[in-house]
Amino acid sequence: IAVAEFFFFLTTGYCSSALCSRDLILVHDQPKTWSEGQTYCKENYADLVTISNAQDMNKVIDIMNEDVDNFWIGLYEDVLTWSWSLSDVGYYGDGEAEFRNWDAGEPNSQSGIQHCAGMQHTGKWKDLDCGLLNFFLCLDGNLVEKYYSYWAEAQHYCRQSHKDLVSVRNQAENQEVQSMVPAGKLAWIGLFGDSWKWSDGRNSLIRYWGQGQLDNLGEGPNSHSEHANLTQIVKYFCPTSIISKLLPEASQQYHLITGSLTWHEARSFCRVKYTDLAAVNNMADKNRLVNMLGGRVAHTWIGLHKGAADRWMWSDGSGRVHFTRWKEGEPNNVAGDEWCGEMSEAETWNDMSCGDKKSFVCYERELMTHRKVIKEM
């Protein structure tokens, strides 16, 4: 993008408190690169603007010049840094915020999308795709609760209902938390990686990425950004109706949405409103889903998609597809881009282009809750 297309905001005062009032100035007659804008602001005022909350964002919007589309702010990408979701410095003793117990070879940021940390039942940590479904551990005084969700949703739940996702400050606490992780499972902890920094050095985690921007964090730790984007998708597409049915003898509920979304849009909708697109792991699931549809729609997206090594997977992270109901001759990838799966009124599956728009089925998983008191956390 040409330099001339970018102008910038600067702030005339630095405040350590979010309640402190700051004056903002829009420099719209001196187009500069980001670095030039930063230098100008630091030499003449304080710095490029940091957006710490919704009030800051609204203040920026209020003084934007409608004749210019793009403005620099103080956000820039640096090396990936691992931080705890619970940022209260008073919670950590000397060096405790830097305690890490990574497994050998971790973190490896595989494919550039592993920005959230999970604990294995061995007590060792791994960096993971934040969009996977895992147990998670909330911190509330000396009480940890164990649930099952995505990292960003886990963070939101813990902050709303307790204190935050659990921080692990030392080896003793690591062993206590380890005792709660089932064999062969992973549990989210509050550690996340973020390569984006504010120019003035403040630790604001607020992000307002535009739709389609920074896709590798679409399911990542910046829940403010994630939910803002996905909420826009939900409001924009406005599904025409939602039909829900509790599954007998199951801990999940199916929801038929008779709107018209692409597979990825449908997955985003399901992850915001429910748990994920529907997974069909056995004949009982298939029968419940058919009963749910009741012949209402001919073709619906389910959570079936082609993953690594051309293997069909479920979008909820439950793994490779073993139970199948493919239509005869399918999957055939006839269009060359048929990487997503639909279910037809004939109760069979077909591979389709992910950009096709269809109705879809979400499912909602009940939280699996267990309580255990741990010592002096």
UniProtKB/TrEMBL annotation:
CDD domains: CLECT. Keywords: Disulfide bond, Signal. The keyword Disulfide bond applies. Residues 1-17 form the signal peptide. InterPro entries: C-type_lectin-like, C-type_lectin-like/link_sf, C-type_lectin_CS, CTDL_fold. Coiled coil: none annotated. Residues 32-139, 147-222, 249-363 form the C-type lectin domain. The keyword Repeat does not apply. This is C-type lectin domain-containing protein. The lineage of its organism: Eukaryota, Metazoa, Chordata, Craniata, Vertebrata.
